[in-house]
Amino acid sequence: MRPPVDVCVLILSLSAPGVLKAMNNIPALQEPLPILGMGMVVLGLVILLLLLTVQNQKKVDPLFYVFAGFSFTCMVGLTNALEQDGFISGFMAFYLKTGEPHLRTAYAVMMSYWDGIVHLLLFLTIIHRMFKGKSYRSLGLLWAGSSIGHQIVHIPGVAIGKYGSNIQPAFWRNVPFFLVPFWAASLLFSRPREMPVITADKIIAEQKKGLLSRPVDLLLSLLLLGAMAFSVFRGFVVLDCPLDACFTYVYQYEPYLKDPVGFPRVTMLVYFFYALPLLTVFTYGLKTPGCSWMLDWTVFFAGAMAQTQWCHIGASLHSRTPFTYRVPADKWWPVITLNVLLAAVPALLALRCRNNPAYFLKPVPEGQTSNEKKKN
């Protein structure tokens, strides 16, 4: 009897360290171009094996190949993280030398842990639900936000940081991993959202309440405003604003923002130019009834902020970051608290929208009953 598809994907993913071990012991495969070529060959073989795995399925969602293929690379990331932290050895030395040397940085190590644990668990859960006929749209949007947040910091960070002068051919393997999540996100956003019908009376009653009558939304609005202010401030810091407050913060509180690897600077600029507008429209959505887009975009944004903040916080404390750029011991609590809140607020907002969506919906037509499903 053939095992479930999600189990087959997990088994395939677990073969990644073996592939790395073999390449690490074959000198002919350790040059820049052969590394890129072997990466493409291995990816092609993974896709072929996935096609064989689901050949008896009547209909396969095209996103299955995305989630299953990316699962393999998750194990590559986890292998890298474990080797850089000294838990294993003999897998990644060749790749770090002539492939992607930036993967030894603290930011990349934290990124690899996230990829190898959080993304892998998301993929396996999504694939399990996919073949059980259950909805996975919200989990998919969470991953899409996380993956896009990962790549829009990772790729520019390498290009403008100290590793930008040593980009090898293998680095360009990141291009499909940058583009595919955008395509996957567009598919997921275009699919109908399913949720139990909420009666028109309840929707109307919720939408009549002002912000002061909704204490949870009021608190979230204040937290969003705080996140906006923090994003603006740190954007000014990495843009070398001459204000005394910026100078004091970067040298006495969060010197990691000046780390020449480039990742923290890009992260703050992404927050300044992309997260800040989204935080603004979310504040508007909490104040204005009927903004149904809040139900999807808050999930997407929560994934992006969780991933980028995990990497940023972890890297600012990691031993691979030079001591002068780590968060000072006496400033640890205020800096880490603010950074954790910046990751937590979008997650809390997404949970609020999901658990009580009535305020964000349009009124239900009178003919519908509570037993029906509404595609909003």
TrEMBL record:
InterPro entries: EXPERA, TM6SF1-like, TM_Tm6sf1/2. Its main location: membrane. CDD domains: TM6SF1-like (cd21106). Pfam families: TM_Tm6sf2. It is found in: Endomembrane system. GO terms for biological process: lipid homeostasis; regulation of lipid metabolic process. Residues 60-185, 216-350 form the EXPERA domain. The chain crosses the membrane at residues 32-51, 63-82, 106-127, 139-159, 171-190, 211-233, 268-286, 293-312, 332-351. Keywords: Membrane, Repeat, Transmembrane, Transmembrane helix. PROSITE patterns: EXPERA. Signal peptide: none annotated. One of its GO terms (cellular component) is endoplasmic reticulum-Golgi intermediate compartment membrane. It is a multi-pass membrane protein. It comes from the Eukaryota. Belongs to the TM6SF family. This is EXPERA domain-containing protein. It comes from Perca fluviatilis (European perch).
